[in-house]
Specification:
Layout: H1 7-25, E1 35-41, E2 51-54, E3 59-63, E4 68-72, E5 78-82, E6 91-94, E7 99-102, E8 107-111, E9 117-121, E10 127-133, E11 138-143, E12 149-153, E13 159-163, E14 169-174, E15 179-184, E16 189-194, E17 199-205, E18 211-219, E19 224-231, E20 233-239, E21 245-250, E22 255-261, E23 266-271, E24 275-283, E25 286-294, E26 302-305, E27 310-315, E28 344-349
Antiparallel strand pairs: 1-28, 2-3, 3-4, 4-5, 6-7, 7-8, 8-9, 10-11, 11-12, 12-13, 14-15, 15-16, 16-17, 18-19, 19-20, 20-21, 22-23, 23-24, 24-25, 26-27, 27-28
């Protein structure tokens, strides 16, 4: 014997089905656009450059010229200052050995748990960017003058060796498969280093696409490099295994940092003009700029908190630069004096 639904029950079922269908069609929270979710003015004096999130220890590091500032990654409150970091530009942390390092002259090494200084390490060149390779537990102190890279053992701070990269290094990334990739600003190339031998094995040249190569990010799984240029303002997408250029994408002006988030499969590039560009592979072999986030002028470097999938940037307000002398080029954008106590930490998320 067939059974039929009453009109009331049938209507209720139709309503429930429609409700479920509508709920499933709504975009998930992860599909919402990125935005600045927090802005914390922390003040303080001194120049700044790179920023680093230690997701496991919940700390945020950035150098302020003569010291390294350590903030709580969740509250953004100051934890401690590490002093005597002369000319510091960046920071590297080995979360396994619990050691931190500043790209200063000399390099300062500290205990990342107590934040107490352990020792200083004399290095040649002019330390600028800094990078930690977890595969070899090596810290790379990068310099625009020779030696281009001084490699330290993160366990004891001893110098393992130096490398001539063939150009002025900016950002570096590792694939955890024995390769280090370094963007060379003056050559518009990526230098490929054998992490074990500390020898350069290749140069991926993309100088016909753009100049002044700075930020660099890596999608390890798909073997994709995202190399950022300032002239023109583009991201060059390359195959990490052979250096073949896949495509180029427009980004904001004066990029100085990039990061890839494997959890969301997105690359982020940060620019001095107050933009954060979001790049995603939308189909096999096809990459697109999916969003441009308005941040704040001067927020040119970025770092990823892999626990929250948030991007952290640093910046400060600046006075207009003085007029250039007759016959001299105009100052770079955002090169005016820093407005006192205007230094700010920005958090971008969903």
């Amino acid at each position: 014997m067939k059974k039929y639904l009453s009109p009331a029950l049938a209507a209720a079922c139709l309503f429930s089905f429609a409700h479920i269908s509508f709920a499933q069609s709504k975009p998930a929270a992860t599909d919402q656009p990125y935005k600045v979710v927090k802005s914390e003015k922390v003040g303080g004096d001194g120049a700044f450059d790179y920023v680093l999130a230690d997701a496991s220890a919940r700390r945020l590091y950035f150098a302020r010229g003569d010291r390294v500032m350590v903030h709580d990654l969740d509250t953004l409150k100051l934890v401690k200052e590490i002093p005597d970091c002369k000319g510091a530009r960046g920071v590297a942390v080995d979360p396994k050995a619990h050691h931190g390092f500043s790209s200063s002259s000399p390099v300062v090494m500290w205990d990342s748990q107590t934040l107490a200084t352990i020792k200083t390490i004399a290095v040649e060149g002019k330390p600028d960017a800094m990078f930690f390779d977890p595969g070899t537990e090596h810290v790379y102190v990068l310099s625009h003058v020779a030696p281009n890279a001084t490699v330290l053992d993160s366990k004891d701070g001893s110098i393992v060796g130096t490398i001539d990269l063939g150009g002025a290094p900016e950002q570096a990334v590792a694939d955890n498969q024995g390769h280090i990739y370094v963007n060379l600003e003056d050559k518009a190339q990526v230098a490929v280093i054998d992490a074990k031998t500390l020898k350069v094995t290749a140069h991926y040249d993309f100088s016909d696409k753009g100049k002044v190569a700075t930020g660099l990010a890596l999608d390890v799984k798909n073997r994709i490099l995202f190399a950022c240029c300032r002239n023109p303002a583009i991201c060059v997408v390359l195959n990490a295994d052979d250096g073949k250029v896949i495509t180029t994408l427009p980004i904001g002006g004066w990029c100085d940092g990039a990061v890839f988030n494997p959890a969301t499969m997105e690359a982020f590039t940060s620019q001095r003009d107050g933009t954060l560009t979001v790049i995603k592979q939308t189909s096999p072999g096809k990459f697109e700029v999916v969003q441009t986030v308005q941040t704040k002028n001067g927020a040119k470097t970025c770092t990823l908190d892999s626990k929250t999938n948030q991007i952290f940037l640093i910046t400060a307000d600046r006075l207009p630069p003085p007029p250039a002398a007759p016959g001299e080029p105009a100052a770079r954008p955002g090169r005016g004096a820093i407005v006192p106590d205007s230094f700010t930490i920005l958090v971008v998320g969903k």
